[in-house]
Amino acid sequence: MESEGVSLPLIHEHPMKPWNDLRKGDCCQRFVSQSDGYYCKTCDFFLHKECGELTEFIIDHPAHPDHTLQLRHDKGGNICDSCGRKIVNLCYRCEMCDFDVDLHCAKYPPPDVIDNFETHPHKLTLLKEQTEFECSAKCRKGGGDGFPYKCDECDVSFHVDCVWHPEASELNYSPEVNHSYHSLHPLKLLTGPPPHYSDGKCRLCGTDIGEYFYHCSSCNFTVDLPCVFNPPPKSSADPKVHDHQLTLLPRLDSFTCNACGLKGDRSPYACFDCGFMIHQDSHPDHTLRLQGIRGHVCDICERKVDWTCGGFSCKRCPGYVVHSKCATRDDVWNGEELEGVHEEEEDTEPYVVIDDNTIQHFSHKEHYLRRIHGNGVLYEEKKRCSACTHPIGLHSFYGCIDCDFYLHQKCAECPKTKRHVLHNDRLTLVTNEELADFLCKGCDLKYNGFMYKHGDIELDVLCGSISEPFVHPSHPHHPLYYMPTEDREICNGCNRKELRVLRCIEIDCVFVLDFKCATLPQVVKHRVDDHPLSLCYGEEEEASGKYWCDICERETNPKEWFYTCKDQRASLHTKCVLGDLARFMPRSVVKFQNRSFEVVLNKSVTRPFCSKCKSRCIYPIILKLLGISETSFCSFECAVLFYWFGEK
Question: Are 108 and 166 in contact (CB under 8 A)?
Answer without folding.
Answer: yes
